[in-house]
Amino acid sequence: MADTPRETRVLDAVVSLVDSLLDSFDVVDLITELTERSAKLFDVAAAGLLLADPLENLHLLAGTSDNAADLELFEIQADEGPCLECFVSGQPVSVADLVAESRRWPWFVPAAVDAGFASVHAVPMRAAGIVVGALGLLGTSVGELDAADLLAGQSLAHIACVAILQEHAPSASAVVPRLRNALDAQLVVEQAKGFVRERLDVSVEDAFVLLRRYARSNDEHLTDVSRRLIAQPESRPEMLAALAAINTSPA
Predict the structure, then answer these.
(1) Which own/partner contact pairs does 2-10 have at CB distance under 8 Å and 24+ positions apart?
(2) Distance set, CA 132 to CA 87, 124, 168 (Å)
(3) 193 close to 204: Cβ distance less than 8 angstroms
(4) Highest mean pLDDT among 3-7, 33-37, 128-132
(5) 10 Å Cβ neighbour count for 124?
(6) How far is the C-alpha of 61 from the C-alpha of 153, rounded, in Å?
(7) Domain end marker among 142, 168, 194
(8) Distance between the two ends of the chain, CA-based, in angstroms?
């Protein structure tokens, strides 16, 4: 796979993700897969996707690692960084060497360097002329994204918008409720991850993996599984037993 041209790998990712859009899909699961593919496609260590709520506050919708998720959350709290800048300007941001941008982002840069990252990039997510979020890419080595990489990243960001909005040409009035639905779905999944972490004594990241594997093995949506786990106490013993079995089985 490493010898496959970048263009071929990007097209393969696009085709696979669009195929998912043409079938019944779970928005949180698909966005997670998109961020995972983004990290691999652009040879970066991690990726994260931030989505805006109706008040234009950004929220973490997906992150490929705990380090990436923590840094993206810090970026939101510090109100500075590549995804924030990308969201406000509506333009891609690509920083080849983070250390050189200490004055630009005095809080974000030390946090990113401490987390092991050396370069950062972000592309905007747009819908009906509105910037609704940003896809962030985090590298552990110095390096920039060229024009072709940024275009490919923008293509994946567009797919993320389609997945969240669930139609190709939404009106401006339709954007806000669909953003709210995506954020609500993510909140349910986060609650389920915390519940599984506590009951099975696993990490949050492993809890998410278990929930995804359970959903896929039962041909269910990740959000539906999470909602049932949280809202239907009578279902919990059977679901937790199944999740525990998955935890002890080979991946």
Answers:
(1) 6/41, 6/148, 6/149, 6/152, 7/148, 9/40, 9/41, 10/41, 10/152, 10/155
(2) 7, 8, 15
(3) yes
(4) 33-37
(5) 23
(6) 17
(7) 168
(8) 21
CA nearest 114: which of 146, 74, 162? Answer: 74
Question: What is the structure's pLDDT at 2?
Answer: 54
In which band, very low, low, confident or very high, does the pLDDT at 137 lie, cut at 50, 70 and 90?
Answer: very high
Q: Kindly state whether residue 179 falls inside one of the protein's structural domains.
A: no
Cβ proximity of 229 and 236 under 8 Å? yes
Q: Which H or E element spans position 163?
A: helix 147-165
pLDDT surpasses 80 at 85: yes
91 contact partners, CB below 8 Å, separation of at least 6: 124
pTM, entire model: 0.65
What token pair was written down for 246?
Answer: 């998955």
Q: Tell me how many domains the chain contains.
A: 2
**Predicted local distance difference test score (pLDDT) of residue 170:** 47
Residues 164 and 200 in one domain: no
Which of 121, 139, 168 corresponds to the end of one domain?
A: 168
Convert the pLDDT of each residue in 166-189 to its tens digit: 644 445 555 667 677 778 888 899
- Which is nearest to 24 in space by CA: 221, 173, 210, 224? 221
180 located within any domain: no
> CA 39 to CA 36: how far, in whole Å?
5
Quote the pLDDT of residue 153: 86
Asked if residue 23 is part of any domain, the answer here is yes
**Three-state SS for 126?**
strand
Lowest mean pLDDT among 120-124, 173-177, 220-224: 173-177
**Whole domain around residue 189: which residue ranges?**
185-248
